[in-house]
Each structure stands twice: as structure tokens, then as C-alpha cells.
Amino acid sequence: MSYPEEAIASLRKSHLPTIAKSIDQISHDWSFITDNFEKVGVPTEDYQRSMAQNQALLATAGEMPDDPVSATVVGDVAEDLSAKAEHIMDVSTTIAGATAAAYSEVDISIRTVHGSTEVNGYLIGFSPRHLAGSDSLFRFNNPTSPSVGKLPPGRYEMTAMLNGQVVQRQEVSIGILGQGPEIVCLVP
Predict the structure, then answer these.
(1) Under a CB-based contact definition with an 8 Å cutoff, are residues 129 and 155 in contact?
(2) Stretch 80-102: mean pLDDT, rounded?
(3) Cross-strand bridge partners of residue 155
(4) What residues contact residue 83 under an 8 Å CB cut-off, 6+ apart?
(5) CA–CA gap between residue 33 and residue 24 (Å, rounded)
């Protein structure tokens, strides 16, 4: 989870105001996150993978700091890091002696609903927002309803699958100010 110094330096040279606005927040949140994990221990593998993806996204955006696509990517990273930082702040103020696991994961439960009726049998998956439309990176192996699991705080595209087919995609934010611990997925 090392600080993406080279990418941040490159993005600071951008002439796009949206990148300039986001990069200060990214820098602050990244430092806050790493400082807090240094106090409590190593984050979970899923959390580390999520941060590595953010680092790779920033490196790619840093190669083209004035490209509008980079602005979108930087905005997605900023929102993801913000959710992670806010989750750490919430945990540290509500749990005495917070652990790396508490900072790394949010317990969530997914209910699938058709109209006003809860329906069962859907498998739930999640991908970071920037991977929307692709196969789920995280999957809960227990079908709904409910389906329960843990995710790193952040922004995701949630998918509901039935009989091996994605039948619903829904954007969710996991962590403080986001959705959880219970999320309703409206299915067709």
C-alpha cells in the first residue's frame, strides 16, 4: 500500500480542474489510510488488492494527466479512498482498540427483492466501480436471501446472478455514508 508518489506528482501537473481538485483529497486520504494501518497491523488481502488497483489506476491516469478519461478514473479513485478513510474514522471512534480487520472489512447482507416480495436463489458479486460490466472480483458463495459476506469499504458494482446469468447490476458504496450493513437489490 505504498504511497503512489510518481503518479500523484504526474497528476498534479494536469490542467484539468477536476483532477486538481481530486488529487489533494487522494493524497490526504491515502496517507491517512496507510498511517492508520501502520498503527493496527496489515490489512486483509482483499483490502490490499483494492488499494493495489487504485494505485494501478492512478499510474495509468498519470501517464495521460490531461485526458478526460483520466479525470473520470481519478474521480473514481478519490471516491473509493474517501469511503475507505471515512470507514476507518468511523471504526476508530466507535470501537476501542480497533484492529486491521475492522478497518479492512465491512460486514454486509444482501436481500433480493422483486416488486415488494423478497426472492431467493441469487448469487451476489461485486467489482470495483471502475470495472463495472466485467466479471465480479468478489463473490458471496451463499445465495440470497440474504447473502452475507465481507468487503473492503469502497465503491462497487454489485451483480445478482440467477442460473449463471447476470440479471441485475447496481452501483453501491460500502462503508460509512455508503450502503450497508443491509443492501436491497431489486431484481427483475
Answers:
(1) yes
(2) 85
(3) 173
(4) 153, 154, 155, 173, 174, 175, 176, 177, 178
(5) 14
CB atoms inside a 10 Å sphere around CB 69: 10
Please provide the average confidence, as pLDDT, over all residues in the chain.
89
Look up residue 161 and give its three cell numbers. Answer: 446472478
> Which residue, among 96, 99, 84, 89, has the nearest Cα to 174 in the 3D structure?
84
- Best CATH choice for the domain 105-186 from the list 3.30.1460, 2.60.40, 1.10.10, 2.60.120: 2.60.40
pLDDT at 157 over 60: yes
Pairing of strands 106-114, 182-186: parallel
Question: 177 is written with which cell numbers?
Answer: 455514508
CA atoms of 78 and 63, how far apart (whole Å): 17
For CATH 2.60.40, list the domain ranges present in the chain.
Answer: 105-186
